[in-house]
Design brief:
40% of the residues lie in helices and 23% in strands. The chain is of the alpha/beta class and 265 residues long. Strands 3-2-1-4-5-10-6 form a seven-stranded mixed β-sheet, with helices on both faces. Strand 2, helix 4 and strand 3 (85-89) form a beta-alpha-beta unit. The structure holds S-adenosylmethionine (SAM). S-adenosylmethionine (SAM) is lined by residues 14, 41-44, 46-47, 63-66, 69, 91-93, 108-110, 113-114.
């Protein structure tokens, strides 16, 4: 693993899991003082709040389909006293954003789960001013992500089983030619892919990491499909696999992501 994660082990959260990825995305976004930023699939809103701080004379709007995520994001932003940030519960595929309102649309792993990516990116494009930018982070292919290679075999689930179970596909934007075609058809140009090769953080120790991974939707769904005795064995396999990645500063697994950037034509 090519990690530079020299920090004391900290409690795990989604923001902690992606701390190193977040820094790469922040740099790539290059948000300016007056930018108006749209954060797609903003979740708990860390990237939206960061955008608002980077654009004190602009604004940031975070949207997510999850009402709970939006409520949590609003609470944190209010507690932090941010005045130029807002959150809306919205499906980015169809929400009537104000046309040509935003300079930049960003996303940290929030654009991989669309039922209709063509509609979603066309809708995002309409919200951007001409030449406005899209900068989003998405996972590279499954086989390039150590975290997937550790979790799925431990649980005894293959790719086909996951697809058959109707799980959302975190690798749906992994293929550069396919994504370029989708973005160009949605009105974007100059599509680029920059590799981010940083590990994900799963917690300060194996017990914390196991709890964290058991909270993933794919894990809980897989365990529910097993009998109690098979599920118990799968959990022990997972514990063993995570233990193999424990270090003095926590449990880290390799990953590869893309930063996908494009410009509205
Ligand atoms: C992996 S999470 C990432 C959350 C956030 N960007 C972060 O990095 O903390 C993906 C998010 O995308 C949201 N999402 C999925 N489909 C969406 C859609 N059609 N419109 C808006 N948000 C969506 C989910 O609710 C979830 O919060």
């Amino acid at each position: 693993m090519d990690a530079d994660h020299q920090q004391p082990a900290q409690p795990v959260s989604y923001d902690a899991e992606l701390r190193l990825h977040n820094e790469a995305l922040r740099r790539a976004c290059g948000i300016q003082l007056r930018d108006h930023v749209l954060d797609i699939g903003c979740g708990a809103g860390q990237t939206t709040r960061q955008a608002a701080r980077a654009a004190p004379a602009g604004s940031a709007l975070g949207v997510d389909v999850s009402a709970a995520a939006i409520a949590g994001a609003r609470e944190v932003a209010q507690a932090e006293g941010l005045r130029n940030v807002a959150f809306e519960r919205a499906d980015a595929q169809a929400y009537p954003f104000p046309p040509e309102r935003f300079d930049l649309a960003i996303s940290r792993f929030g654009t991989m789960f669309f039922d209709d990516p063509a509609a979603a990116f066309a809708n995002t494009g309409r919200a951007l001013r001409p030449a406005g930018r899209l900068v989003m982070m998405a996972w590279q292919a499954r086989e390039r992500n150590e975290w997937d290679a550790v979790i799925r075999p431990s649980l005894g689930i293959g790719q086909a089983a996951a697809a058959a179970a109707g799980e959302p596909d975190p690798f749906s934007l992994a293929d550069p030619p396919a994504v370029t075609r989708i973005l160009e058809a949605a009105g974007f140009a100059g599509v680029t892919f920059t590799e981010v090769r940083e590990p994900v953080y799963y917690g300060p120790d194996v017990t914390a990491a196991l709890d964290w991974v058991r909270g993933f939707q794919c894990t809980s769904q897989a365990l529910e499909r097993l009998s109690p005795s098979h599920a118990a064995r799968a959990v022990e396999r997972l514990r063993g696999a995570l233990a193999a990645h424990a270090t003095d500063d926590g449990v880290w697994l390799g990953s590869r992501a893309w930063i996908i950037a494009a410009q509205r034509r």
